[in-house]
Task: inverse folding
């Protein structure tokens, strides 16, 4: 989809590199998510993908077609196959739901019969056919976002781009919209690429995830691989929110990133179990074989899409060689293990 993309901006302080040699590939029919901190380049990448921003170099390739190789007319026609859902709904308040959704078709000169057929079909899919003649002021936030999604899809698009599209919604409504996108992906086969700073959104819906930091893709892969076994410090920090919620304040207030050299300490370790590894009594085996006194600080069950996984926070007396053997033990049994820090004793 994207190959060696570069984008810069000129500022009073000099040249700002917004995207630096960005490459990523998303298979047709899959749902991909781009995540990164504020200022990482997410919005710029979104604008380049949607044709709202030109690039300095590199290629944006959609369905084997390179955007930069097209004539203006060919470029316009290809962009018609891309639907866009923004953070804000951008509905026209003087037009009804039906009229908002039909607008792209009207602008492209479709007949009234085709417009009636397509709009009714897509409003049925998003669950708003009964509100076709209501105005935006009569809708809830979730309903407005459904209208925006219907408008983006109404012209039989192949690719749907979503930019922070749940940030204005409450958690329950966000889950409903994510379930709607899953259904659209299954029913219509539309490729979906979404941009978010919220890991809960990414893990709820995506097949693949791409981590952007300082204009570069620093990690990518299947959602379960990246989420359960993050390789970079940036990715680990993005996922650390859930872990921090699990750690009691008495621990976080004294947690150190480096092990004390002289004084004894306990290591705090995060373990993530897949459905398969969760069936084994690994904590019991570890304690017995290594003669370790283990403390379980916290634990919870969660999910990545439809797959469940378990997470535990444990502590034990820190000793370098023992800790290395413990990490090897969990790696052997396909359990992700990460040392979060050390507590002086």
Result:
């Amino acid at each position: 989809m994207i190959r060696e993309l570069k984008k810069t901006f000129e500022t009073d302080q000099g040249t700002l590199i917004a995207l630096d040699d960005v490459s990523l590939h998303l298979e047709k029919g899959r749902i991909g998510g781009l995540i990164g901190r504020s200022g990482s380049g997410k919005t710029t990448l979104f604008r380049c993908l949607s044709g709202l921003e030109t690039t300095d170099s590199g290629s944006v390739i959609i369905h084997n077609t390179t955007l930069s190789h097209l004539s203006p007319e060919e470029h316009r026609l290809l962009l018609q196959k891309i639907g866009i859902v923004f953070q804000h709904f951008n509905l026209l308040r003087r037009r009804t739901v039906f009229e908002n959704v039909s607008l792209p078709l009207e602008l492209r000169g479709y007949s009234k019969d085709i417009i009636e057929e397509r709009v009714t079909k897509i409003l049925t899919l998003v669950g708003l056919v009964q509100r076709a003649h209501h105005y935006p002021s009569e809708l809830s936030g979730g309903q407005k976002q459904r209208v925006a999604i219907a408008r983006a899809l109404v012209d039989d698009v192949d690719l749907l781009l979503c930019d922070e599209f749940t940030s204005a919604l409450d958690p329950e409504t966000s889950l409903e919209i994510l379930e709607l996108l899953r259904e659209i992906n299954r029913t219509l086969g539309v490729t979906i690429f979404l941009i978010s700073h919220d890991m809960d959104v990414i893990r709820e819906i995506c097949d693949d995830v791409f981590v952007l930091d300082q204009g570069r893709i620093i990690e990518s892969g299947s959602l379960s691989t990246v989420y359960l076994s993050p390789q970079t410090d940036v990715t680990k920090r993005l996922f650390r929110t859930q872990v921090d919620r699990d750690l009691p304040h008495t621990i976080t207030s004294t947690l150190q990133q480096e092990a004390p050299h002289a004084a004894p300490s306990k290591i705090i370790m995060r373990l993530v179990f897949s459905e398969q590894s969760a069936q084994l009594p690994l904590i019991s085996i570890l304690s017995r074989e290594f003669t370790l006194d283990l403390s379980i600080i916290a634990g919870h069950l969660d999910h990545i899409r439809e797959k469940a996984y378990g997470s535990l926070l444990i502590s034990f007396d820190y000793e370098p060689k023992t800790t290395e053997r413990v990490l090897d033990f969990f790696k052997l049994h396909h359990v992700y293990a990460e040392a979060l820090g050390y507590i002086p004793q």
